[in-house]
Amino acid sequence: MSLPAAFVSVILIWSTTPLAIKWSALGIGFSFAVFSRMAIGVLLCAVLLAMFRIPFPLHRKALLAYVAGGLSMFAAMALTYWSSQFVSSGMIAVLFGLSPLITSLGAMVWLKEESLTPYKLAGMLFGVLGLLLVFRGGLGLPEGSVVGLFALFMAVVAQSLGLVWLKRIDDDSPPLATTLGILVVALPLFFAAWWTIDGHVPNAVSERSAVATLYLGTFGSVLGFALYYYLIKHMEAGRIALITLVTPVLALLLGHGLNDEAVLPQVWLGTASIVLGLCLHRWGGQWVKLMLR
Predict the structure, then answer these.
(1) Of residues 222, 246, 172, 235, the one with CA closest to residue 12
(2) What does the alpha-carbon distance between residue 82 and residue 279 come to, in Å, rounded to a whole number?
(3) What are the tens digits of pLDDT across the range 180-203?
(4) What is the pLDDT of residues 138-151, one digit of tens each?
(5) What distance in Å separates the CA atoms of residue 204 and residue 195, rounded to the nearest whole number?
(6) What is the model's pLDDT at position 292?
(7) Residue 227: partners with Cβ closer than 8 Å, 6 or more residues away
(8) What are the C-alpha distances in Å from 84 to residues 23, 52, 177?
(9) Cα-Cα-Cα-Cα dihedral of 147, 149, 151, 154, to 10°?
(10) CA atoms within 13 Å, Cβ hemisphere of 151
(11) Segment (H or E) for 99
């Protein structure tokens, strides 16, 4: 698949993932929902690797990538699913819109990919302003929303630093094999979390929850992550994270239109501030050069 096609596919998958997370946990609990999603992902990945005879590397770099990605995935997904009990799907996407800024900071320190320019600093400041506005909007939501937003922010940090960690390892294994290895590392952790928090299989699962879990297990965990790791291997970490430039707005609209989620003015302002910050961070220097011509 071409890089532009992979880039657009990940945007579409990530835009629908927050709402699917909300729906998948309906009536079955967040811990069982995320464990089921990852179990489906492992099975599907294993079948695809066998069908297409894709090798599953076990050399040192591959194993390091599996561990790094697995720990990052567990932290990010466990916190995201837990917080989905308290915040809307749109909020999930908006907070994940901060990942390019956090990724860029990590890349500066860890990968030495980029330097801190005035435009990047301005973009980060707008991102922080957007975060504060979103948290302020959370004050007007049901009890637990602010704690949920904080957990979401920590999920964003875990995913962003995990991306930088994978980029630093620089493993060249096939993306689908990397996805399977990461899921295999993460799955026992999700099982342990479900067993500790809940520990029983739901007696009944709604059709919406089942479809959402199946969608997340196939597209969210397998196709989405395989394309994501494919992009990691061929693009800079900061550019990959720009996927979240579009997903917050799309996810807010989907949550409002399909799930009747209220979107407070502060959340829209926060989203606009984050998007503006991302634009300044990535293209601020180019804009100034064009205006000075």
Answers:
(1) 246
(2) 30
(3) 999 999 999 999 999 998 878 888
(4) 555 566 678 888 99
(5) 18
(6) 59
(7) 1, 6, 9, 10, 13, 175
(8) 10, 36, 29
(9) -140
(10) 17
(11) helix 99-106
Average pLDDT over residues 108-123: 75
Q: Are 15 and 246 in contact (CB under 8 A)?
A: yes
Number of independent structural domains in the chain: 1
Q: Which two tokens stand for residue 284?
A: 């601020």
Report which of residues 202 and 289 the model is more confident about. 202
Domain that holds residue 15: 3-292
Residue 140: helix, strand or coil by DSSP? Answer: coil
**Amino acid in the structure at residue 7:** F
- pTM score, two decimals? 0.85
CB contact at 8 A, 131 and 115: no
Q: Look at residue 215 in the predicted model and tell me its pLDDT.
A: 94
Q: Indicate the DSSP class of residue 241.
A: G
For residues 20 and 211, the answer to whether their CB atoms sit within 8 Å is no
> pLDDT by residue (tens digit) across 16-58?
999 999 999 888 889 999 999 999 999 999 999 999 999 999 9
Token duo for residue 269: 């302002």
Between 79-88, 151-160, 187-196, 270-279, the lowest mean confidence (pLDDT) is in 270-279
List Cα–Cα distances, 186 to 180, 190, 259, in angstroms: 10, 6, 30
The residue length of the chain stands at: 293
94 contacts 267 by C-beta, under 8 angstroms? yes
CA dist 242 and 256 (Å) reads 23
What CA–CA distance (Å, rounded) separates 230 from 241? 13
Q: What angle separates helix 265-292 from helix 118-138, to the nearest 10 degrees? A: 170
- Helix, strand, or coil (residue 201): coil
